[in-house]
Amino acid sequence: MVYGIPFYVYITLAGLYSLVLFYGCYYVGSSFFIPIICSLKTDKKIVALSFDDGPVAGNTLEILQILKENNVETAFFCIGSRIAENKAIFQQIHDEGHLIGNHTFSHHFWFDMFSAKTMLADMRMMDKAMNSIIGKTPKLFRPPYGVTNPNLKKAIIEGNYIPVGWSMRSMDTVINNEKKLFNRVISKIKPGAVFLFHDTSNTTVAILPALIKHIHENGYEITRLDKMLNLQAYA
């Protein structure tokens, strides 16, 4: 203002700065606060499937059966608070060769508003719940809702986790039409892609057999996420 710059310029700059921060917080692929691995740069026709928010009775078992029938290994980023009531399902995920990653214990709606200390405590509760069942501690971490910020960056670094995102968000938590979901997903198939689905989605369960078939028929191999990205799965 001393130099005669109009007030609206400051408002505009503040608005642009807010948009940049919003993008950095809510677009997991931006790696704005911390580098997050979301895909593999490759020409090889390989992709990875991942499922968040399990284990849940019913859907997770159906997904496991479909994967077993098609000899496919995937990644499950699980919520720690759901393990105790689904111990057998959780054990089955591991026994059948799938990767299990940390998706926090609470998956609280306001998780991204927690302090770094509270975030880390929540993440370690998931580690403890997982270790008590399969004797392994997860190294890979996926942020709830894909939201990141400086507090989460600090928690990830202090917890020595490897943050993993996705390159294709299926939106299966809001898309209930099977044809629409199927078409959305197959349009994003490309070498090194990481697909995000949810155990809680009935629509995903419905299209999964056809999706796997389509991927294979187009010359792609479905590889377990940690193997495709060459990451250490467990501490």
What does this structure look like?
This protein has one domain: Glycoside hydrolase/deacetylase (TIM Barrel, Alpha-Beta Barrel), CATH 3.20.20. 42% of the residues lie in helices and 12% in strands. Helix 4 packs across helix 5 and helix 6 packs parallel to helix 7.
Q: What is the domain total for the residues?
A: 1
- Please estimate the helix content: 40-55%
* Overall geometry: globular
Between the first and last Cα atoms, what is the distance in angstroms? Answer: 54 Å
- Classify the oligomer: single chain
Largest pleated sheet: 6 strands, parallel
N-to-C order of helices and strands: HEHEHEHEHEEHEHEH
The number of helical runs is 8
Radius of gyration: 19 Å
**Would you tell me the overall average pLDDT?**
95
Q: How is this structure best summarized?
A:
This protein has 235 residues and is an alpha/beta fold.
Features:
globular; 235 residues; 8 helices; alpha/beta; two-stranded parallel sheet; TIM Barrel; six-stranded parallel sheet; 12% strand; 8 strands
Secondary structure topology:
Blueprint: H1 7-26, E1 46-52, H2 59-69, E2 75-78, H3 87-95, E3 99-102, H4 116-134, E4 140-141, H5 150-159, E5 162-163, E6 168-169, H6 178-186, E7 194-198, H7 202-217, E8 221-222, H8 225-229
Parallel strand pairs: 1-2, 1-7, 1-8, 2-3, 4-5, 6-7
